[in-house]
């Protein structure tokens, strides 16, 4: 009952956000946009839109996770008592990205990983997506580093041996990490293969990672990062901790994408120089990351190129319960020039906080002739 009430309160707060920003008429209207028919202009063009929601560092706290996902209108309590999942995906074709560190510091490891498994499956059935990044704490647990594991967490598995088995190469969590998680996720703000996209238009992309991608790792590429990360994780889950390559050890270092904090701690000049290089190489508009907590809310740097979204959601920290929302629209408008038609690309970055009014971080409109 407590979680249901929290979810309803969070949804009410999100409704206020949608009214405030004017990006939709109702909080739960996910029936239009990228995967369905919208009102067309006389030339047949239609608006195309999608929401991308990101959360960071849930750290073993199911109630607070439900708060932020409900606040973002992605989940609601399942009404049917016979359903196999306690929470229902209501996000339609929205996409949800977790920047990692679901585990440690709290007791709800099993419930959180089961929740994300369920939401990943449910969202796929209706055109949505759930994408997940590995955090340093996922890999620490795979390596057997349990310094931040709570007694309640261990007991929920039935003891240390059962927990280790679940986080092994053959265990259900280990298999989930190997099959459903990457070190970094590059997300398109609209489906790149959408049939109504104008010819020659490529939707902008956003990079998500737990720690940060330096220019050097950006040069090596996303595929390289994820390949090395997958190999490192596989060895950790297989208890082959003394058999790591130089590349794997570098990935696990303080300059690797799971641990790097430079975008949070470097001077503005250095952070922005690196962000410019990394984002250009990766071909992305924003670099979104967790890992370094800022208890009062999101930190944006370098004209919103860097978005730091770890706000200490878990009760272990006592920070803000938060979600980043990227509303993206490609809207056809009247007008033609040199055989090209006028479109307006709209992007709004919003910070949702439980118990506080949503904060619009940035809102841009760009005229395009396509």
Can you describe this structure in just a few lines?
The chain is of the alpha/beta class and 370 residues long. The protein is built from 12 helices and 14 strands.
Kindly name the structural category: alpha/beta
Helix content: 25-40%
Q: Strand tally, please?
A: 14
Q: Determine the strand fraction and express it as a percent band.
A: 15-25%
| Shape summary | globular
Give the SSE order as H and E letters. HEHEEEHEHHHHEEEHHHHHEEEEEE
Q: What CATH first level would be assigned?
A: Alpha Beta
Using the coordinates shown, work out and report the CATH topology: Purple Acid Phosphatase, chain A, domain 2
Termini, distance in Å? 51 Å
**pLDDT average, as an integer?**
91
How large, in whole angstroms, is the Cα Rg?
21 Å
Under the CATH scheme, the architecture is: 4-Layer Sandwich
How many separate structural domains? 1
In CATH, what is the homologous superfamily? Metallo-dependent phosphatases
Biggest sheet, spatial arrangement of strands: 6-5-4-1-12-13-14
Sheet with the most strands? 7 strands, mixed
Write up this protein.
The chain has 370 residues and is α/β, with parallel strands linked by helices. It has a single domain, classed as Purple Acid Phosphatase, chain A, domain 2 (4-Layer Sandwich). It is built from twelve helices and 14 strands. The chain has helices at 2-21, 62-71, 109-125, 136-143, 151-157, 160-166, 172-180, 215-220, 222-237, 246-251, 262-265, 268-282; strands at residues 48-55, 75-77, 87-89, 95-98, 129-133, 181-182, 184-188, 205-209, 286-289, 299-301, 306-308, 322-337, 340-353, 359-369. The strands form three sheets. A seven-stranded mixed sheet has the order 6-5-4-1-12-13-14. The protein has a five-stranded mixed sheet with strand order 7-8-9-11-10. β4 (95-98), α3 and β5 form a beta-alpha-beta unit. It is globular and about 70 Å long. Mean pLDDT is 91; it is low at 1-36.
